[in-house]
Amino acid sequence: MEYFCKFLSASAIGIISIASPQNTAQAQEERSPLTLDLGNDVSVTFHGYVKADFIWDDGHDLGKTTSGIKNIGLPAGGPVGSFDRQQLNETRIGFDVRGPNDLFARFEGDFFGKDDSLRLRHAYIDWYGVIVGQNWTNFMSVENLADTVDFQGSLAYPFSRVPQVRYTYSGWDNISLSGSVEEDKTNKNELTYTMALRYGLESGMVRMAGLYRDTVVPGSNVNGWGVNLSAVFGLWQGGKLKANFTTGKGIADIVNAGLTGNALIIGGEAVGVNSAALTVSQQVNDKLKLAVTGDWLNLEQSSGTDTDSLSSVHLSAFFEVYRNTTLMAEYYSGRRTQGNGTKFSSDRVQLAIKYAF
């Protein structure tokens, strides 16, 4: 296990990441035309974007993303009041390498690291369906990610980028099967195992994934499992629906809300969690896109000031003012409910401008 982690850690620092187009559909849209031909069927393409965010919070200071909703009302939560911030943290840089025999590589980072430093996002290799390195967990669907201005997105779906070894078989019509051995999200010395089955539709897809973990969190052993169901459907001209449902035990930290402590295990028993998210978007014309995302998460055991449930809604708009330049606006409202029934809420208005290269 130690060798496995050191190998993937080295790849994160010095390796070029490699990704299949299916797993990086979102990044494909941001790919730069700046490509260098190195000969021998090897090319390097640079890509990324600059994004400036202007944020106003009312209720609690949620921080750089809406992930702070999980702590409002607690001593560790943001202070009460109205707050504003400006940031460039989501700004992203990276490059891809394409080589012979279907070789594809990606290295990518953003500025959400400590003290706004450059942070690794992706560093992995994909060759004939085998991925080695840091990539999205196989338990989540990248195609299903909500259309939000907020970097955090929906709190309800599985979300992590971890070192892993994954194999995807795509030899059937419209069907792919993938399995992975991954570094556990919370304990880097342990492993998590996943399987996923995807069926492609004419205007979308459906996907089912399973996860098993047996790990140690501070002071406790967590034996957990999870099932994720996700789907994307084309509704009508320009309309799209994304649906996501997750259930399991001892996986509250793997769901995007990132709950830990008593949300994972109580009295030696893994805590059950259920979450759901729904996004409906409309491409109004070639410039304007609108989206609504609602999500909900509930823990099967809670008491006192422990989190019992979380819910939120994003109302989002994206307008391409020039080629590769997009103006964005979003209203967000989130609520946290404790085991004792006490509720806390906070609102956010976020404006942004993004230039992709």
Labels describing this entry:
357 residues; mainly beta; 16-stranded antiparallel barrel; 2 helices
Write structural notes for this entry.
This protein is mainly beta and 357 residues long. The protein has one domain: Porin (Beta Barrel), CATH 2.40.160. It is 5% helix and 60% strand. The protein starts with a helix and ends with a strand.
Oligomeric composition of the shown chains: single chain
Radius of gyration, in Å, reads: 20 Å
Strand content: over 45%
**What's the rounded overall pLDDT mean?**
90
Pattern of helices and strands: HHEEEEEEEEEEEEEEEEEEEE
What is the CATH topology classification name? Porin
CATH architecture: Beta Barrel
Number of helices: 2
Reading side by side through the largest sheet, how are the strands ordered? 2-4-5-6-7-8-9-10-11-12-13-16-17-18-19-20
Separation of the first and last Cα atoms: 38 Å
* Secondary structure: helix percent: under 10%
Q: In this structure, how is the largest beta sheet organized?
A: 16 strands, antiparallel, barrel
DSSP E strands, number: 20
Identify low-pLDDT runs.
Answer: 1-32
Shape field: globular
- Tally of separate domains: 1
CATH class category label: Mainly Beta
CATH homologous superfamily title: Porin
Secondary-structure class: mainly beta
